[in-house]
Amino acid sequence: MATLTASEARTVYDAITEPEVFWRDVLGVEHLFPKQMAIPASVRDHRRTSVLGANGSGKDHTAGRLLLWWLAMYEKAKVIVIGPTFRQVSDIVFREARVAYQQSKFPLGGL
């Protein structure tokens, strides 16, 4: 596994507390709709967050990246992902997390 340079490590560290910065500067997400960005901001700022949205509105995309951000932000975190079906979690949300992890600008290690 590649290690981070001091500059890369600083970029990741500085971005951890701000999900929008983490997604842009670490995960390389180029564009999020305001409603998509409201989800991690709510998770950061509130104890509970509920998300309602139509099919294809980016909820799974957001959930996969939110999972990575949460693990980066809280060193000893455990993330539990639930959904209406096993397929929804394993084939969709976890796939989104894998894609974001593999395409990140920096090696994220074991998060």
TrEMBL record:
This is Uncharacterized protein. The lineage of its organism: unclassified sequences, metagenomes, ecological metagenomes.
